[in-house]
Predict the 3D structure of the following.
Amino acid sequence: MIAKSDMPSINEKSPEGQKPDGGGAYRVLVVDDSMFIAKQLGQIFTSEGFEVADTAGDGAQGVEKYKALHPNIDLVTMDITMPVMDGVTALEKILEFDKDAKVIMVSALGKEDVVKKSLLMGAKSYIVKPLDRKKVLERVVSVLKR
């Protein structure tokens, strides 16, 4: 009987969520008022070895949690439209606190003007809903490797 260890895998790659220096998993804060989207992002991240450090349901909570987790947070995904504090305002407050924060905006179609404004303010990239696993990972990895 052949064991798995006897068969070298040509497709094996390390998970995208692991730091290249062996420093463990990249830590992500997911800020979204939709539990469905937050859960979907969480599943995408954990399936690739990322650690979801925390989640927040609105921009104000997101800012608080970012400050509490700083500097042990590598990336924030930030929904644009949320109650209490919208994602653009939260982005602004996070960047005031930490100018090097890596924030990726999450937007529904038709919000191109707000996405552009966010990118000009300092967001590193954006993801469009509905979420596409491959695109989410491509954008996240490109931001983290900058």
About this structure: Strands lie at 27-31, 51-56, 75-79, 103-107, 125-128. The chain has a mean pLDDT of 91. The longest strand covers residues 51-56. DSSP finds five helices and five strands in the chain.
